[in-house]
Design goal:
It is a single chain. Strands 1-2 form a two-stranded antiparallel sheet. It has about 150 residues and is mainly alpha-helical. Helix 2 (about 20-45) crosses helix 6 and helix 2 (about 20-45) runs antiparallel to helix 7 (about 125-150). It contains seven helices and two strands, in the order αααβαβααα. The protein has one domain (about 10-150).
């Protein structure tokens, strides 16, 4: 299952990101998304039923997928940034979330998302601006040092 979120009204942020090198803009987006996704992972860890703890330990925030997941995943546009939250390669996560014929569903990822999505979405704009400002300050300091050297 995949959830795509589109946030409208970020024209100024988009313009500021376009003024930066593409790799810098993608790194900013990646850092902000990882930071904003961590509360979802924490909520999922709090909700997951624990038997041996393997599933609990496998819940993380990452930009990478396993080889199998990459094969099943729709390829993003080269300018897109994706962050994944969940049990990664642990197949028990799917069975726990959706159940089987012998085991009832005990969802933990969807409820975690439902509890935290407002905070994730609300803070994106502020976090993006803060990261952009940090990068611009760092670039200004670097340019000043370079100018001082001659």
């Amino acid at each position: 299952m995949s959830i795509t979120i589109r946030i409208e009204g970020l024209k100024e942020v988009q313009a500021a990101l376009r003024d930066l090198p593409k790799s810098t803009g993608k790194n900013i987006m990646r850092r902000v998304l990882i930071a904003r996704a961590e509360p979802v992972a924490e909520a999922a860890r709090a909700l997951v039923p624990v038997d041996k703890g393997n599933l609990l330990a496998s819940i993380n925030v990452s930009t990478r997928l396993t080889r199998r997941q990459r094969g099943l995943h729709r390829k993003p546009h080269r300018d897109d940034v994706e962050v994944h939250v969940g049990p990664g390669a642990n197949p028990a996560g799917h069975f726990q979330e959706f159940g089987t014929s012998r085991h009832p569903a005990q969802p933990f990822m969807r409820p975690a998302w439902d509890r935290t999505k407002a905070g994730v979405i609300e803070g994106l704009k502020e976090d993006l601006w803060a990261e952009i400002e940090k990068v611009l300050e760092r670039r200004a300091r670097r340019a000043a040092r370079k100018a001082a050297k001659g």
